[in-house]
């Protein structure tokens, strides 16, 4: 019994040593499994970090064709910059210096991201409609409430064709908020004026009723001057309720470090499967089987080599994300409250990656088949598994397909540690699925 165990351990050790030596001599393979995922994780972290920071329209230049040139239009632009929290570089123009067609061409050519055209008589038309609405609200107008907006109130917006849809929605939301702010301000001011006028008229009628005779304009002005001291527009207001987020938003590193490290770990299929194909084609595999060796020892040796390589990959990318990238300006990479769970997750993922490379190498006939199928299959699994595109952004069909991707299981396990800070029991399902996937691959490669 001890002899069999020793033989098994010896075969495992020699197989793992052989696989590592073959990979060490394959400089191209080393670059593929170490340098490629490292570069991808760094690049994608910086790109996604920039996208996260740019979600509030920072550095978005805009040109405004203000044909109205009124205080209301200026207040609208100021509200767009301050009230809605939008930080944009604004270039002002008018019809004397820039026509509507020229503005559209300028934006489409990419010189500006957004073009805004405020029509002539924008403020006066808006004030007339608001005045009519206010009079209707106070019962000073018996006609129907005016709700139809005229063309003079329509602000035309032109976007750069390459501007992302999320930026368009964010800008449109900010513009609508600015318009509502300006309209509400005008409506409040006008209501204040109309209420004061109506109250003064009622007060004068009550005074005349008490005196039994009409007041002269001079006497009425003297009485109503006392009323003017009453401020119907209070300067103080209750503080707005605050918002506190219980869970902080994840950083770009929390998304990209585990995702692209996982992609690189499964990409060992290219050199590992290729080495197995070479062994089969050169007759080495048949000669090994003639010895009194354990096939399970050979499998365990290959899996051991995969664990060593994948652990080195993950450690390199994790060290880069934890130590180097925050020094280059990115947000720090928190490891979560259960950082020790990275060890079993990485171990199980490494076993799954090694088992997958074994089954690909066992079924492939040539090195080209192994490398092409292995690389393409990993890319497809990464695409459907949420590494390249988040699963929640996929169509319903692809969201269901992601449930079949081993990279999705592994990524969810890493997210449970990095992002969600879940307890150990929360990743049991994902780890079990990866173990079953590994056993299925080993059985298929028998």
Features of the shown structure:
single chain; 446 residues; mainly alpha; abc type-2 transporter like fold; 2 domains; 4-stranded mixed beta sheet; 16 helices; 4 strands; 5% strand; elongated
What radius of gyration results from the CA coordinates? Answer: 35 Å
Largest sheet: 4 strands, mixed
Q: Quaternary state, please?
A: single chain
Indicate the low-confidence ranges by residue numbers.
Answer: 234-246
* Adjacency order of strands in the biggest sheet: 2-1-3-4
Give the % helix: 55-70%
Provide mean pLDDT, rounded.
78
Q: What is the SS-derived class?
A: mainly alpha
Summed up, the domain count is 2
List the helices and strands and how they pair.
Blueprint lengths: L1 H24 L1 H27 L6 E7 L4 H13 L4 E6 L6 H9 L5 E5 L3 H16 L18 E4 L5 H47 L5 H11 L24 H15 L2 H14 L1 H7 L4 H30 L17 H22 L3 H18 L11 H7 L3 H13 L9 H17 L2
Parallel strand pairs: 1-2, 1-3
Antiparallel strand pairs: 3-4
Helix pairs in contact: 1-11, 2-8, 2-11, 3-6, 5-6, 8-11, 8-15, 9-12, 9-13, 11-12, 12-13, 12-15, 12-16, 15-16
Question: What features would you describe in this structure?
Answer:
It is built from 16 helices and four strands. It is mainly alpha-helical and 446 residues long. The chain has a four-stranded mixed sheet with strand order 2-1-3-4, with helices on one face. The protein is elongated.
Can I get a quick summary?
This protein is mostly helical and 446 residues long.
